[in-house]
Amino acid sequence: MLVDSHCHLDRLDLAAHNGSLDAALEAARGRGVQHFLCIGVSAANAAAVKGLAEQYADVDCSVGVHPLDLEPGAAPVLDWLLDELNHPHVVAIGETGLDYHYEPEAAELQQQSFRLHLDAARITGKPVIVHTREARADTLALLREAALPQAGVLHCFTEDWDMAKAALDLGFYISLSGIVTFRNADALREVARKVPADRLLVETDSPYLAPIPYRGKANLPQYVREVAEFLALVRGERFEALAEQTTANFKRLFPLARVV
């Protein structure tokens, strides 16, 4: 059985399932996906992701503010974040982090927000979900500064092995998405081969980044199976073993999640 460790259920394109989220989740379950982690990206969608976690027993959620969803000139307020995290189905913090690819001018604000999320992780003991793009040195510096005992995950990882190893050394997990299937992702596939089995997660990041053979189409949680099957091939492992291992890893990292 599989877990989609990072999906945006409130943003899915449901055309393939006649507009029904119920049908989309059932299609994923039919392909062996037993649990879904629905990710918060802003103050505006916190209620939506919590509502989905309340509605479905196999959905848990995170709450946080994505670095590209920050209010201009203002980081989120710690009291707000702690209040949102005080919910039985909010099992993680984020996604948070740094993205200098699109908004390098907002680096200072992003760092302030990232530190706030890491402070919340220290206070609550909940793991943090990290987005990082073209901000390698600063991301690692802030993670080292935080020194979280429960760590978290670098999701949708696209960096090189040096960064992966540095994050692993800090206790973090590495999650791979459909990007690993892309034709030009040789360097990422090399990372995929090296990540220790007990620190690997799989995700869709749906509705974004659909794996081959669905690249260019709307991504769906059911396609986490394609990601896992491809990773098993790359790593020279049996699919069933990889599925079992990544699910065990998810349970270990997110102990509050309601995974059967």
From TrEMBL:
<dbReference type="InterPro" id="IPR018228">
    <property type="entry name" value="DNase_TatD-rel_CS"/>
</dbReference>
<protein>
    <submittedName>
        <fullName>TatD family hydrolase</fullName>
    </submittedName>
</protein>
<keyword id="KW-0479">Metal-binding</keyword>
<feature type="binding site">
    <location>
        <position position="6"/>
    </location>
    <ligand>
        <name>a divalent metal cation 1</name>
    </ligand>
</feature>
<feature type="binding site">
    <location>
        <position position="205"/>
    </location>
    <ligand>
        <name>a divalent metal cation 1</name>
    </ligand>
</feature>
<comment type="similarity">
    <text>Belongs to the metallo-dependent hydrolases superfamily. TatD-type hydrolase family.</text>
</comment>
<dbReference type="InterPro" id="IPR001130">
    <property type="entry name" value="TatD-like"/>
</dbReference>
<dbReference type="InterPro" id="IPR015991">
    <property type="entry name" value="TatD/YcfH-like"/>
</dbReference>
<feature type="binding site">
    <location>
        <position position="155"/>
    </location>
    <ligand>
        <name>a divalent metal cation 2</name>
    </ligand>
</feature>
<dbReference type="Pfam" id="PF01026">
    <property type="entry name" value="TatD_DNase"/>
</dbReference>
<feature type="binding site">
    <location>
        <position position="131"/>
    </location>
    <ligand>
        <name>a divalent metal cation 2</name>
    </ligand>
</feature>
<feature type="binding site">
    <location>
        <position position="95"/>
    </location>
    <ligand>
        <name>a divalent metal cation 1</name>
    </ligand>
</feature>
<dbReference type="GO" id="GO:0016788">
    <property type="term" value="F:hydrolase activity, acting on ester bonds"/>
</dbReference>
<keyword id="KW-0378">Hydrolase</keyword>
<dbReference type="GO" id="GO:0046872">
    <property type="term" value="F:metal ion binding"/>
</dbReference>
<dbReference type="InterPro" id="IPR032466">
    <property type="entry name" value="Metal_Hydrolase"/>
</dbReference>
<dbReference type="GO" id="GO:0004536">
    <property type="term" value="F:DNA nuclease activity"/>
</dbReference>
<feature type="binding site">
    <location>
        <position position="8"/>
    </location>
    <ligand>
        <name>a divalent metal cation 1</name>
    </ligand>
</feature>
<dbReference type="GO" id="GO:0005829">
    <property type="term" value="C:cytosol"/>
</dbReference>
